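User: Predict Ankyrin's structure from this.
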Amino acid sequence: MSLTSAAGRELRDSCLIANPVDPKGLAFSMASLFCTPERRRTLADLDNAGIFIDRSRYAQLAAEDAALLMCDQGLQLWLRYAASPCAYPTLFVDAIMNGEFSPEPPPRLAHALRVLIACGRDTTNDVPISETPGDVHLPLSHLCSHVAVEWLPSLLRFGANPNQVTASGVPLIASAMAAQADRLHAQGCDLLILHESLYRLGKTLNAHGASLTAPSRSGSPPVMLLALNGYCGAAEVLLGLGATCNTSEGNRSGNTLMHQLASATQHKAYSFTAFFLFILALRYGGDPDLPNSSGVKAVSLLPDSLAQYVRLSQKMIAQARERALHVIANPRPKSAEETNGTLPVVSAALMAEAKRLCDAGQDPLRPHASLFHVATSLRQQGVDIDSLHQDGSPPVLWLALRGYCGAAEVLLALMPDCNAPRFEGNTLMHFLAVATRHPGDAIYADYMLNTALRYGGDPTIDNHAGHSAITSLTAERIRFLRAGLAFITQTRRRALQNLNNRRNPLARATLVATAQHREPHAAPLRHSAAAP
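Assistant:
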């Protein structure tokens, strides 16, 4: 191929864009490859031409990917999207310009993604966007999770590293879950609330090998990164998928997640979201009394008032779990609805799935991913997930009184408004509060009443008679519920503040750096304030 021909000039221009430092050298290498018949090209030829950015991919290349790289189309795609370190983001720009964001990447872009991964360009994470230090492009997989999350499963199938980190050390699972939480927030979803799409994304990443606990460069696990940046619902999803609370692997001081969260409560910007996750972690097995290498327990890092709240929460969770397991093992007599087959569809389906999970050893208090899948599927089919039972009780209460508190919480997460007035103006909070006065139901009714606060439940709303839910409670329960309501309100406000501070460059630039470390402002997540 002559570099003075039309094809040669086109190749030279492409190489000038791809490699301004040595365009002639790249043009000569590419011309040599293009002039060699496809059947005679070898991986060694590609290696000599500098096609492999990560040479470890050379030895691991699948036959299908090797064939793609060695064909004319593969070389053209490499030149277009992989030759220059800053070219891979243009793949998504091209997709946007051409309106090509389908559930699966279209063939040409799928080939381009495979080429990027086959040559190792997906490992690039330090390409500057501007002259500002630390302002760099996200790696390919992280960028995909932000702008084309529907393609992320394909990218992982093509061989992208599920544990790829950014230049500042943030793992893919934290970046992707934060991006999904951002999208949900833009759609009006609460940052503190669980969502089926978060479970689906987390399960996809975990199934492809993403670690739920691998720490960032600062030593903070993904749960910590998400929580301190305001993404509390996303953080809990990782706990639900198996992220451990009590291991200190990789931590120099032997600190568990509970230690890190407790430590972060000492920092004003993170105190509420960190403590919120600390309390949530209790029902996922988090042990606040495990000592670190210095013999310090996580609970001892908390102020006395918070430590007291932890003990009350531990007691409530333990009692609710014990009572739920007892009721599930010794079910109450079937209702008329169950006998004559008129039980609301959502209650029947969730009870069956929750029973299956409990029989398999799952905790009845946890909102399992499969419960979200069942409820979401029913709602998509047009089923009213909030239809009342014949006795007037809502499904949340009906499921909770049978011990299936996790299933009841899933409905709370999916309900548009748990303060909607029902019979005589009573809200769900009124129903739950009244149930606490019945000895057999009091324990898990109290648990669900406190859980509902997170989902917007307001116990101070009056019914038609002028009575609020809180008036049905004992003095002790009123104090605990009021404390919980104030705490949830402040946590929601702080989560939004943290999110807005991360998005706002001016606010972000004025934040006081922690003594331990500070994350460069362009990273998708700041590292935790807790000492590693």
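Residues 505-532 have pLDDT under 50 and may be disordered.
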